[in-house]
Every structure is written in C-alpha cells, then in structure tokens.
C-alpha cells in the first residue's frame, strides 16, 4: 500500500512539471540550406570561439575540436539550445562535404558547415531544422570583413541574422 501511495505522489508531481521548451527556429526549416563542399577535417580541427550565436551569452565561448578518425572529440561550450551548456562527446563526419552528426552535443541534430573562409579562420555552422546557427572564429574578435561574409551566408541560408548576435 505504501508503494502505491508513493507512486501516486510521484505521478502527481510529474504532472506539474513542464516539458523543456522546443527550440525556436532561427530560420524557416522548409527553405533551402547549403553546406560547404570543399572541406578538410584536419584543418577544421582545433580551437574555435563563438563569435556570434542565437543563444544569449554565448559569444566568446570556447570549443575544442580534436580530430579523431572520421570526426572529432568535442569539448567546450554548446551554444545550440536556449542556453549555453557543456559540449562533450564525438562528432562524426557523415558528409557529403562538411556535414556531421554529434552523439550528444548540438541536440544531436545534423550540423552543417555552411561556409568557411579559405584559411579556416571563420566558419558558419547551422542545422537544416534552423534550431541553431553560429559563427565560429579562431580568434576574437574576428576580422570585420570575414564577419560580414559570415552574416551574408547566414542570411542567404534563411537565418534571421538579427537573432544571431555577438
């Protein structure tokens, strides 16, 4: 009987809990999106800093991408949800081009590199769902012309660039 009462109390308590809010898309997921075709995983590896993100307070967050076979081990800050979280786990290169799938970070959504400059100083990451988009840079602040180009790429791919801030 005591177990039955305890189960009822837990069931009632669970009813009062609100589910986690769905991420609000930064782009229309029905619109076109493109990823980089020419991509060198070894050059992408290393330390990146979030130069702009749709998550308030993520600017300046660090991410370390350590090449590991057909992908990377990721650590640092995950700026893909409604708030900054710890990023960890593996990210597998799944292609074509610069498309990969994380095992735990980024909400486990497919992540696409939409663009990067030829010297791998600035990269734009996003998801087909539009749940997140961000600009990564090897150093802060990024060069102004590279940041402008990154914002143009986000805009081209349907992102609301007003919501992706530094």
TrEMBL record:
Domain Lipocalin/cytosolic fatty-acid binding: from-to ranges: 106-165
PROSITE patterns: PROKAR_LIPOPROTEIN
Family matches, as InterPro entries: Calycin, Lipocln_cytosolic_FA-bd_dom
Superkingdom: Bacteria
Any Pfam family matching the protein: Lipocalin_2
Protein name: Lipocalin
Organism per entry: Paenirhodobacter populi
